[in-house]
Design brief:
Order of helices and strands: HHEEEEEEHEEEHHHEEHEEEEEE
Shape: globular
Helix content: 25-40%
Structural class: alpha+beta
Distance between the termini: 57 Å
Radius of gyration: 22 Å
Number of domains: 2
CATH architecture of the largest domain: 3-Layer(aba) Sandwich
């Protein structure tokens, strides 16, 4: 029995060495996964296009304004701040939030997310005007969506109407003719006239080429937003990957990975060159290379001082912002 336990421990250590600490990774990706889950559901419910992980230049502060996502339809555009908070949450008199963890009883103070979302909408509107997009009055709004089922509050009425709480979020339903129903009318300000096609197309073009965080998609539908740094690995593999730079490449897709990543087998990597003759990246010019599955992507997650390394065998795709 002791031999079996020892062998099991050794196998566990070996798997951890190749796969990394999934528990830590889950914590790091949970907020990003929540943003992408909200974006996907909004697109399915109300159509339109959700732009995730924007980094909009702010002329006043001289820095970049991070925006979780912007949902764009013919009727409106909504800047959405996604909160993946768990615990008992209350609103202070100044609009800030106090979150107390259910298990650790740890207090966390968060700046007013409603005010943050409104600020993000103002920065985005100024950026769009600078790029020649004039939005109709009232077309752009901002909301806060609570995506975590473990979000608790003793007095939900104290939250401003811009906050879509979890029980409201899970019961959202689309309505015919594209009109939001019930309480959502007040939340997303529906019932407006459709935007002109030319302006709508121009808005989508600007948002699709706006500064964004790089996007790393891992196996198991896990996402990480942040900044791609470099590749690490054998010299010949790095030579094959030398053209994957944001100035040249828009997306990299990993195919045919080896089982478990234990053997020094190789995998295929497809990447598309940017086509600056059109807006954004073009998928018309793909190149295929073959490299070792142990080759690593060095990535700096958003809002983290820690640089992480991900093996190509654990990656589905890497999207680089222009």
């Amino acid at each position: 029995m002791w031999i079996e336990l020892l062998c099991g421990l050794v196998l566990y250590k070996v798997l951890r060495m190749f796969f990394g600490n999934d528990d830590v990774l889950d914590v790091e990706t949970s907020d990003f996964n929540a943003i992408f889950a909200v974006a996907t559901r909004l697109e399915k419910l109300y159509g339109g296009k959700a732009y995730v992980g924007l980094r909009i230049p702010d002329a006043d502060s001289g820095s970049r304004q991070n925006i979780d996502l912007v949902l764009v339809t013919k009727r409106e555009a909504v800047v959405i701040c996604v909160k993946n908070m768990a615990g008992f949450v209350s609103v202070n008199s100044d609009g800030s939030w106090l979150c107390i963890s259910e298990h650790k009883h740890k207090e966390e103070h968060h700046p007013d997310p409603v005010a943050d979302a409104k600020r993000q909408a103002l920065v985005l509107e100024e950026y769009l005007e600078q790029r020649g997009v004039s939005l109709p009055e009232g077309y752009l709004s901002s909301k806060v969506i609570i995506s975590n089922p473990k979000f608790r509050t003793l007095d939900p009425d104290h939250f401003p109407p811009e906050v879509i709480q979890y029980d409201q979020w899970v019961h959202l339903k689309p309505e015919s003719k594209g009109v939001f129903s019930g309480w959502i009318k007040g939340a997303f300000r529906a019932g407006k006239k459709d935007m002109q096609d030319s302006t709508h197309q121009q808005l989508q073009s600007v948002l699709s080429t706006a500064p964004m965080w790089d996007r790393l998609e891992l196996k198991g539908s896990k996402f990480v937003l942040g900044e791609f740094m470099e590749f690490k690995g054998k010299h010949d593999d790095l030579q094959e990957l030398q053209y994957i730079k944001r100035s040249k490449v828009g997306q990299m897709v990993v195919q045919k990975t080896s089982m478990f990543g234990l053997a020094p087998t190789k995998l295929q990597v497809l990447y598309c060159f940017r086509d600056y003759r059109t807006e954004g990246s073009s998928s018309s010019e793909w190149k295929e290379v073959t490299v070792r599955s142990s080759t690593e992507v060095v990535f700096q997650p958003q809002n983290s001082k820690k640089v992480r390394k991900f093996k190509l065998s654990a990656i589905t795709s890497l999207t680089l912002s222009a």
